[in-house]
Each structure stands twice: as structure tokens, then as C-alpha cells.
Amino acid sequence: MENQDFEIWQPLIKVYLQLGGGIVLGWVLGRVLPQQMPLWIGKFLFWIGIPVSIIAFLRNADLSGSIWIAPVVGWMAILLGLGLSWLWWERRSGEQKVSATQGSFILAAMVGNTGYLGFPISLALVGQKYFAWALFYDMLGTVLGAYGLGVVLAARFGKGGEGYGHLWRSLAINPALWSLPFGLAFREIHLPLRSQQILSGFAWIAIALAVILIGMRLSQLSSWGKITEAAVSLSIKMFLVPLVLGLFLFLLGISGSPLLVIVLQMAMPPAFATLVLAEVYDLDRDLAVTALSLGSVALLLTLPIWLLLFGFL
After folding, report:
1. What is the DSSP string of 256-282?
2. What is the three-class DSSP state of 112?
3. How far apart are CA 54 and CA 72, in angstroms?
4. What gap in Å lies between CA 203 and CA 53, rounded to an integer?
5. What span, in angstroms and rounded, lies between the C-alpha atoms of 299 and 294?
């Protein structure tokens, strides 16, 4: 019985070792390496690492079944987070006046780090077979939500920034989005075993770099203000939304690995895009930074909850 319990929790232990080790390593490297290093790594992952990883993992992903549910649930999670955070803020403030802090609060409750963080966690806990569920959730849910609806909200609560144009262009040229249709077509092309191994190895290296990059970026965050607002926003984003929608999906008949993958994506901490929007549109940067930092720590506490509730359904 003890051996069986260990086998059940073994994937989670593996995630803690890989995720925790990578973030700690990134934190140390972020303190000793040049400050521009995270920027260089980020650009490499944005233009090459993550797109190639998507293409590689799609080759072994299962595209059968109701995979279209993933982006639909992604938008349900975004809108539910938006609605709950807006209601809480209005009840708390008792006024209709918009503010920069409210904008950061709502964004942190809406979109999660489903790419750089959600991908490696889903791969570690569920495997490559259901990677496409996480991918479709991120590409057609989180990315479009952050740089579509997120931009509209940031402009409403902020000072307009530089306008919508440059962020819409950033969305249009996002190589990860373009790698999705390419990866789907590339699945049909036969590769020699050696080439497949090289492609897969590069993909896993990119995933490891993404985790290290999170630690490097966290090492450069200096503000921990607005703890109360951040805690409430994270409670909505990382607990209430995945719990409600996860149980709803289970009642609809979705279970097993697809359900776990979707719940894990919903339960990710706020995306770095929330900080980008806060800086561009002059929202509350302190709240955005605090939510990012606190959310990354809270994830280590919430992962066992989702594995217990949805890992065996």
C-alpha cells in the first residue's frame, strides 16, 4: 500500500524537484549574471525555443477527442476571473471610479502563466500525450485573452500607453501562434529516429530554460507591496476559478488526464504579460509584481490540491 501511495505522488515529487530546482538555479543566476541575460534568454525562447518545443511535442500529442474544449474553458476561466474580481473590487471600494490598481487586480485574476510554467508542469504530471490540450488552452485562450481583452482592460484602467497598435502587432507576429498550424502539418512528415531524438532533446532543453528564466525574472523583482489585494486576486485566479470550472467539467463528463491538464492550466499563477501591460499602460506595477511573486510561491502549495481532487477522477 505504501508503494502504491508513493507511485501516485511520484510525479508531483518530480515536479517539485524539477520546478523548484530550476527556479532556485534561475534565482541564483539572476543575481550573478548580467541583468541583460534574462532578456536574451527570453528572446531566444520567444523566437526559437518555445515554438520549436511546440512543434516537437505536437508530434506525439493526442489530437483526438474533444480537444476544442480546452480553449473554450480557457475563455470561461478568463471571463469568470474577470467577473469575480470586478465584483469583489466594486463591493470593497463601493464606488464605480476606475483606477490603475483595479486594472492590475483584474488582470492578475484573469490570465495565467500557461506557457512557460503551465507547459512543463503539464508535461511532468500528465505527459506528452495530452500536451495539445495545454497548448490549445494557452495559444487560443491565454495568449488571445492577454493581448486581446487584456489590452482593452489595461487601456480602460490605465493611461492609454502607446495605443493598441504595437500590442496587436506583437500578437500577430507571435511565433508560438504560428508554430501551432506548422506543428500540426509537420506531424505528417516522417523523421528519422535520430532527427526525432534531436528535436525532442532541444524541446526539453527549451522547457528547462523557461523554468530557469522564471527564477531569473523573480530574482529581479523587488516590490512586495499590496499583499492583501494580491492575495485576493490569487485566490480567485488560482483556487476559486479552477475549482468551480473543474467540478463543472467533471459533471459534464470530462475526466482523467484531459480534465487534470485543463485544471492545471487554470490554476497557474498570473502571467508575465500582466506585468508587461501594467508597465505599458501605467497600471499598478507594485500589485502586478507582488501577484507574480506570491503566485509562484503559492503554486507549490496548490498543486497537491489539484492532484488530489482531479488527478484520480
Report:
1. HHHHHHHHHHHTPPBPTHHHHHHHHTT
2. strand
3. 20
4. 4
5. 9
Q: Of 75, 66, 93, 64, which is closest to residue 137 (Cα–Cα)? A: 75
Q: Which three cell numbers stand for residue 74?
A: 480557457
In a 3-state reduction of DSSP, which class is residue 277? helix
The predicted-structure confidence for 35-86, as pLDDT tens digits, reads as follows 889 889 988 988 898 889 989 988 888 887 789 999 999 999 999 999 999 9
Tell me the DSSP string of 1-18. Answer: -HHHHHHHHHHHHHHHHH
DSSP state of 129: G
CA distances from 204 to 18, 137, 186, 242, 264 (A): 12, 20, 18, 27, 19
Cα Rg of the chain (Å, integer):
19
Give residues with Cβ within 8 angstroms of 100, minimum separation 6.
Answer: 157, 158, 159, 282, 283, 284
**Residue 2 contacts residue 194 (beta carbons within 8 Å):** no
Indicate the average pLDDT of the chain.
Answer: 87
Q: Which of 58-72, 162-176, 206-220, 271-285 has the lowest mean pLDDT?
A: 162-176
C-alpha cell at 271: 502571467
Give the DSSP H/E element, type plus range, for residue 97.
none
Residue whose entry in the numeric block shows the C-alpha cell 530557469: 212
pLDDT, position 65: 76
Q: In this structure, are residues 270 and 143 in contact, taking their beta carbons and an 8 Å threshold?
A: no
Q: How confident is the model at residue 235 (pLDDT cuts 50, 70, 90)?
A: very high
C-alpha–C-alpha distance, residues 112 and 270, integer Å: 4
Q: Which domains occur in the chain, in start order?
A: 14-310 (1.20.1530.20)
User: CA-CA distance, 281 to 306, in Å (whole number)?
Assistant: 34
Percent of the chain with pLDDT over 90: 47
pLDDT of residue 313: 57
- The residue type of 225 is G
Candidates 278, 156, 271; CA nearest to 217 is 271
